[in-house]
Write a structure and sequence with these properties.
- This protein has one domain (19-70).
- It has helices at 2-34, 43-52, 57-66.
- It has three helices and no strands.
- The protein has 70 residues and is mostly helical.
- Helix 1 (2-34) packs antiparallel against helix 2 (43-52), helix 1 (2-34) packs parallel to helix 3 and helix 2 (43-52) packs antiparallel against helix 3.
Amino acid sequence: MNELSKLLEFLPFLIPLIVAQFALLGFTLYHILTHNTYKRGSRVLWLVITLVFMNFIGPILYFILGKEDA
């Protein structure tokens, strides 16, 4: 029960992070699927990277390294 109470203490901080993570993931997947050109790599590469590193790392890597400025 002590573990549950610790989790409940952090829940107000975790919920916004989880929502932000899934919003960033959704926007990244939308962008990858609707654009044809990338600075580096291909659509399949960025889909794999984004899904494997679903926490903030994959989407951030895409926007830094893969997104073509147009």
